[in-house]
Amino acid sequence: MAIAAWPWGAYLGEESKNGGIRAKVSSWRRISPAGLIPHAKASGQYLNSILAKTESQKAGYEEAIMLDERGFVCEGSGENIFVVRDGQIATPPHVASILDGINRKSVIQIARDLGYTVVERDVARAELYLAEEIFLTGTAAELVPVREIDDHPIGEPGEITRHVQAKFVDALYGRAEEYLEWLDFVEVPAGADEPSKVSS
Ligand SMILES: Cc1ncc(COP(=O)(O)O)c(C=O)c1O
Fold this sequence. Notes:
The structure is a single chain. By secondary structure, the chain is of the alpha/beta class. Helix content is 24%, strand content 22%. The protein has five helices and nine strands. It has helices at residues 16-19, 46-58, 102-113, 125-130, 159-172, and strands at residues 21-25, 63-67, 73-76, 80-85, 88-91, 118-120, 133-138, 142-149, 152-153. Strands 1, 2, 3, 4, 5, 6, 7, 8 and 9 form a nine-stranded mixed sheet that branches. Strand 2 and strand 3 form a beta hairpin. The radius of gyration is 16 Å and the shape is globular. Pyridoxal-5'-phosphate (PLP) is lined by residues 41, 49, 75, 78-80, 99, 101-104, 137-140.
């Protein structure tokens, strides 16, 4: 087995983490667990993500939100999704064809440790428009607020998103003692110009 490690900027752009992104619900549904294993980060499955991502970018959005085969919210083309309603955080469950993201798992724990209620439940598409806050999580994207869905404004990144994001970034960069065990530190060779970033 070989593991490649290299410095990599934020997948949705550095500014996305502060200002949030515009997303569009894709006409492509997420792969079904009846035919593949959506939980796995398996390379062949990314044809599905590429179709959704390309469609959204051509339409002028930064990211696609895919629904599952039943029509419930699943995730982004390369991120899991969290929706805040009535002060509670909801995220689609394993039966909704999600990729079992490590950052999803970490953010669920961080948010609960911060005192928020996190519920793994089906999320209706309509709830995206009614949400107080929405954010995405993934290794490449990190934690990115969503400020608009299908041209419907969600608003500036909210208080809960910011609170969880701040702790998430601390955990990611080894500044949160309580989550240090999640990290494997990668030595950056002399001459590399990026600070050491860690990956879980
Ligand atoms: C389709 C999809 N969903 C979710 C995620 C988030 O997973 P993780 O947090 O393990 O990076 C990814 C990450 O690559 C992804 O490609």
